[in-house]
Each structure stands twice: as structure tokens, then as C-alpha cells.
């Protein structure tokens, strides 16, 4: 029987199971699901929904579970997983979720007419799941009672659907804990639903610890409570006992299910802030190749690549993720188009790819990606969809960051400012910041000061506190830019002590940003600080700055170039010369490997393009100081 919330919804609303628009996420399935296999389409949609959920394509997954219920209406677990799709996750959790996902008007609407995600839809389906459990138990008790009375059941000989399995019953009861309080006070959500849910999932895991979905659900529940605050960064010290427990659960479960998409995904997130991100490399391999159209999973492996200094892989696999998501956008524009929740993940792939290209010295690829992203998000789009500015406008300035990184000073000055600088606040501020750097580098200090004052006036707009670049507000990001620009201008004015104090301050502010991948500031400020210290002959501090940067960004060619030049300029005593030469040789070998990639096209001669090049070093026309 069709369940009541599907009224008015048709199979035409559901993702395709075959043909060119099919979403290929591998062949994984949960083998035993109560009352699912009564219908082939019900099983097929459930399988796809589970894969999509594990791939963090939650909106499309929710549609698949609806389609599964259309064909297998007694499958209680489809209700429960649909509810989870509308619930908090590692990237949308806590106050942000509970403040924006409560839609009282959705209470009586069909699912496909509701805003995604919706606490009301989550509540509805978790309730329907537990009601289905009781309905089937009651039906079986009634039949059992009739058999004892030797009466014939009045079901026309049809077989009753099975009683829901114990593992599903307990899992669904836990999901009900999470989803049964729509409209909960965001400030109290942790104590009222978040922590009780993880406690309930722990009990389920303790009984069914070999079940991969139960292990995944429990681990994710703990991680959502501590999202992006798992470890003290960069020490790697766990910030909560939850982190230790999560690691134990994931590592045990991955030994049993090493290719499970959800377990691998969570383990990457768990490891990226830790002292040993390389532990996640084994979990990265399935994510790279076993889920062809799971763009977010393919991308997730690059969180580890960039931390280990493999910038070529970072760019390569984000490009692969972008291709996968382009297919998904074409296949299901309603759940992967610009107004969808998943679109933020698509934009994030571009962000990470450009970040890797910037650190790896891949100018051509970086600009190609930024130009492609600008076709997707631009002032025209935000004028049409102004509600998207709060979390997407911060991605609309990637090519400006690239031009700063590669010293394209004259081209920066030719870029047009947005028509609506408040709508495009981050882009407008970033352009002012870039123009200030460019003018300072070109020796036009008075004009640079004017750009700096304009930036400082723009960036304090209260709107800046409402916009984010994933984990950081643009208010905080622009504050870092401002201090760095003040330092760069002071340097050009010959106020070296003031300049270095400001640049050191901006480095600390950059370090103090909320942990993110990629880091909120596209260019490490230590490259400018170290390069200008080297330029002034302050070698000891410059060496320390570059060594620290290589700790944060291993093998990046900018810091390698800076450190090599510092060591060459040193005058060590005889006993130190051999060690210094050995270190220089080792660093040069790392640099050669980094520059051997097919995408590495920029001739890196200085640690930052704000630095003067030595006589005889190559310069591009746009890098000549006027």
C-alpha cells in the first residue's frame, strides 16, 4: 500500500536506474534488509539510496528511499535512512543545521515538495519507521493468536510481511532519538538530541559491532558532535574522549570492511587533523577508484594528499571528482544543481583543486579551473539567487588568489570590480586586497594605501560576519588579508621593523583560523614573511619561517626555494658545512620531484612573488617591478 506521504509523487520524480543518466556508485549493497526484496525496483532504489547516502549525496538519496518505499512499502529501514538523509551530518551540524532546517510548513506536505533538509521530514519518516515495526508485530501477534484458536487468517492466503529484524529495530529506535524533536532549540540540540543519539548508537554497535552500517552510523554520530574539532591542531592531541572511541571503532571496522565508502570517508576526516594523516592513505584508495560518480568521495582522498605534499594528486583527483559531479549535475539537476545542497560540495572540489595547484606551482591548471568555476558562480548567478551568497560567494574570487600567488600584478589592476560590491562582498574585498599588493609590488605605494583604506572600510560590513568559506567567516579571513596588506605596504615604505611585525601578526592570525581543508587563506603568508626576511638578510628567522611552513605544507616548492636560498647564503663553520650541503642536496631533490609533474609549469625562483628577484633570475613581464 502506498504510504500517505507519497500522495502526488510519481516515479518520474526519482533518479534513473539505468541509461546514460544512471549514477554509478559501485555495487555495494546491504545484503539483508527486512521486507525489501519483495520487489526488484524496491531493492534497486534502496541500494542506490544507500550508496548515495554514504557518498554524502543526501538529497538524491532521500528520493531513492522514497522510490524504494513506493515499491516496498513495508521496508521500515527505508523510512529510517530517509530520515537520516534529512538529519545533521559532519558538514552540516549543530546550530547551523538546527537554525536552518526547521520548516513547520513542511509538516503536512509531500516529501518532494519540502525544503531539503527538513527536520519535519526526518521526524515524519522516523515515526513511520517505528510505527511500521509495531504494525507488523501486531499483525503477527494477531495471526499467532488466530492459529491458536484454529481459525483461518483473513488475508486471502497472502503472506504477511516479516517482523522487522532486531538490528533494524534498534537502529531505527536510535534514529528516532535523533529526529523526534523538530524545532529543538539550536543551543540545546547537543544535549537534547545529539548526545542521546550517539549514546543510543553505541548500544546498537555494542550488540552488532560487525555490521558496517551500524559502525559507520555510530562513528559518524560521535564525529558530528565534534565536527572539525577532533584534535588540537597542529599538535594532534585529541580534544575529546569521543575522538579516541571513534578511532577505535573505525580502525576495527575497516579491518573487516576495508572498502566501505562511509567508513573510509569518516576515517579520512578523522585523520586529517591528527598528527599522522598518512594513516588514512589505505582508506583513500577505495575512494579514488571504486565509486565512479561519487565526486565527494573521490575528492575526500585529496584531503590527505595535500597534507602530505602530493599536490599533483590533489589536483588530479579533484579534477576527477569535478568530472564525476558534472555527470551528476546533468543527471539530476534538481538534487545537484545550483540551488541544491550538494552544489556546495561541487564548488568545494574546485576550491581544493585550485589550492593544490597554487601550492604546487601549477599556474595554467589553476587558472583553467578558476575560469571554469566562474562559469558556474558569478555575479549574475548571485543576483538571481541572493540566498546563496552566504556560503557560496566566498568561492567567487579564486582567480584573484591565483594572480596574487603568481605575481600577475598588471593583470590584477585590469580586473573589473563587481557592479554590486555588497552582493559580491568577498570578491570586492579580495580585489581591493590584490590591487593593494600589486600596487605596492609595482612601487606605487600611495595608490596601494588608498586600496588598503578601501578594503578596511568594506570588510567591516556586518554582512561579512554572516558569510562563510566552509569553516571560517569571511570577516575573519579578510582581517588576515588586511594585516598582511598593511605589512606589505610598510615594507615598500622602508619601514621594515613595522612591516615584519605586521607580517608576523598576520601569520599568527592565519594559524588561528578554524581548521579547514583547504586552509581558509589560499596563500601561506609565511612565504611572504620568509622571502622578505631573506631579502633583508635576516637569515636565521627566515630559515625558521620556511621550516615551519614546510611542516604545515610539506614539500611545497615555494618554501623549498626559500629555504634552499637561505642555506646557500649562510656562512657556516667548517664542521657545519657538510651537514648544510647535505640538507641543501636533500631539499633540491624534493624540489626536483615536485617540479617534475606534468602540471608544474611556473618557474618558481622566489618564495613569494612580492620578493625582488636576484639579478639574472628570470622574470615575466607582469612580475617586473616598475
UniProtKB/TrEMBL annotation:
<feature type="region of interest" description="Disordered">
    <location>
        <begin position="139"/>
        <end position="158"/>
    </location>
</feature>
<keyword id="KW-0802">TPR repeat</keyword>
<protein>
    <recommendedName>
        <fullName>Tetratricopeptide repeat protein</fullName>
    </recommendedName>
</protein>
<feature type="repeat" description="TPR">
    <location>
        <begin position="523"/>
        <end position="556"/>
    </location>
</feature>
<feature type="compositionally biased region" description="Basic residues">
    <location>
        <begin position="139"/>
        <end position="150"/>
    </location>
</feature>
<dbReference type="InterPro" id="IPR011990">
    <property type="entry name" value="TPR-like_helical_dom_sf"/>
</dbReference>
<dbReference type="InterPro" id="IPR019734">
    <property type="entry name" value="TPR_rpt"/>
</dbReference>
